[in-house]
Specification:
Layout lengths: L1 E5 L3 H12 L3 E5 L7 H5 L8 E2 L3 H5 L2 E3 L1 H10 L2 H10 L4 E4 L3 E4 L4 H15 L2 E3 L4 E7 L2 E7 L2 E4 L2 E4 L14 H8 L4 E7 L3 E3 L11 E11 L2 E12 L3 E3 L1 H10 L7 E6 L6 H14 L5 H5 L5 H10 L13 H12 L1 E2 L2 E4 L7 E6 L17 E3 L7 E2 L4 H18 L2
Parallel strand pairs: 1-2, 1-11, 2-7, 11-21
Antiparallel strand pairs: 3-6, 4-22, 5-6, 8-9, 9-10, 12-20, 13-16, 13-19, 14-15, 14-17, 15-16, 17-18
Helix pairs in contact: 1-6, 1-13, 4-13, 9-12
Length: about 400
């Protein structure tokens, strides 16, 4: 059985190893000079390979494609992946949120381990090989056409990634191959990325990190999710864990329908927060209101809050009206971040969208339209929250595709 794998990322390396280990003759074609270019930049260069959790917990963090992924995740779950990597000599460690990293903190060690598995299984890895077209005859794979000519084979596994971080080579090649084969593609959009905000109110807060804050995510007038955690204000708007999670929930919504409400004091309900505010007002009654609020908020957040409430920063506390105090309370608990749009693919951790899952077998990752054609990894319409969950999609679907492609 001759199998060609297109793409040498996490999904491609796993698929190639799984197929070769099962007895197939495997050729992996990578258009870059080396494998795993995107692996090198994940987790800020440390590579958050997976999340140390059981299958059900893992699936609860999948945003799109949960049902489709169930079989693949149970066949090759996070802990099986961890054992596999460690059997290849890659020492792992688990950090906050069950995030798993190489003990060395070097993403390159992950790629090296995956490549070693492939080479040990007999995979032929060729670099600087760009596939330009699939060779399909009578709805059956015949081979691939590269810039150097045609390569005949029995099976082709497309593992070309999505569109995020195009500098790594993720330029959407897989969507072209899929459409060429007759597949429909759910329009790709950025996910796990920062958000652009309207106006310039956030400029004074640029660089401010907020911990233990709440975020209410609305779309179409409905509350989608309430989140809790950390975020940062930036030169363009906002980013950080809370915002990245929110982006995965809203990336398929019309921007005009999205509202992000920040709760600066989630530990206090409105009644308790008002009592706290009244105590502070009594203590600082002869001070400027901006100085009084610094006991409650980071100093750089005070003036943007006051401006939103139309309260002059130098207004004396004892002159603040009941209506102004109510506005302060409302904005402390529901500060509209004035969302305009998501950041682009250049900054998105993953792509949401891809090959329509209805046209792919969830057990084998084989196309339902073309015999011998398989898809795995980010090219599929599957994505998850941050924390190692997306790379696990690549590993699980790559394993499923590789094993299935090796069968006669």
């Amino acid at each position: 059985m001759k199998v060609v794998v297109i793409g040498g990322g996490a999904a491609g390396l796993t698929a190639a190893w799984a197929a070769a280990d099962a007895g197939a003759d495997v050729l992996l074609l990578e258009k870059n000079p080396k494998c795993g270019k995107k692996i090198y930049i994940t987790g800020k260069g440390r590579c958050n390979v997976t999340n140390d959790c059981d299958e059900e917990e893992y699936l609860s963090h999948v945003v799109n494609g949960r049902k489709f992924l169930t079989g693949a995740v149970y066949a090759f779950p996070p802990r099986a992946l961890m054992a596999h990597l460690e059997s290849g000599g890659l020492k792992l460690k688990t950090e906050r949120g069950n995030r798993v990293f190489p003990a060395s903190d070097k993403a390159s060690d992950v790629t090296r381990c995956l490549e070693n598995f492939c080479r040990s299984a007999g995979v032929d890895i060729r670099f600087n090989q760009k596939v330009v077209k699939l060779d399909i005859l009578n709805s059956t794979m015949r081979g691939v056409i590269t810039q150097n000519g045609e390569i005949l084979c029995d099976r082709v596994i497309v593992c070309t990634g999505g569109k995020s971080y195009p500098s790594t080579g993720s330029e959407g090649d897989g969507y072209f191959f899929a459409e060429e084969a007759g597949h429909s593609v759910v329009p790709p959009v950025p996910s796990l990325c920062g958000v652009n905000l309207k106006g310039d109110y956030f400029r004074p807060m640029q660089g401010l990190s907020l911990k233990n804050v709440g975020l209410k995510v609305f779309a179409g007038g409905k509350l989608i999710r309430e989140l809790f955690g950390e975020m940062q204000f930036t030169h363009f708007g906002a980013s950080g864990p809370l915002i990245l999670t929110a982006s995965a929930l809203i990336n398929r919504c019309a921007p005009s329908s999205v509202k992000l409400l920040l709760d600066l004091k989630p530990a206090l309900d409105r009644e308790k927060l008002e009592a706290r505010l009244l105590r502070d007002f009594a203590e600082y009654k002869n001070k400027d209101v901006c100085n009084c609020l610094k006991a409650l908020l980071p100093s750089s957040a005070v003036e943007p809050l006051l401006a939103r409430c139309s309260v002059p920063a130098d207004k004396k506390v004892n002159s603040v009206t009941r209506g102004e105090r109510a506005a302060l309370l409302t904005n402390l608990k529901n500060f509209d971040m004035l969302f305009t749009s998501l950041r682009g693919f250049e900054e998105a951790v993953v792509t949401s969208g891809g090959v329509n899952l209805k046209e792919v077998s969830p057990k084998t990752m084989e196309s339902r339209l073309v015999k011998g054609l398989y898809f795995c990894g980010e090219v599929l319409d599957c994505d998850a929250f941050t924390g190692g969950f997306n790379l696990q999609i690549a590993f699980s679907t790559g394993y499923a595709a590789g094993r299935a492609a090796a069968r006669d």
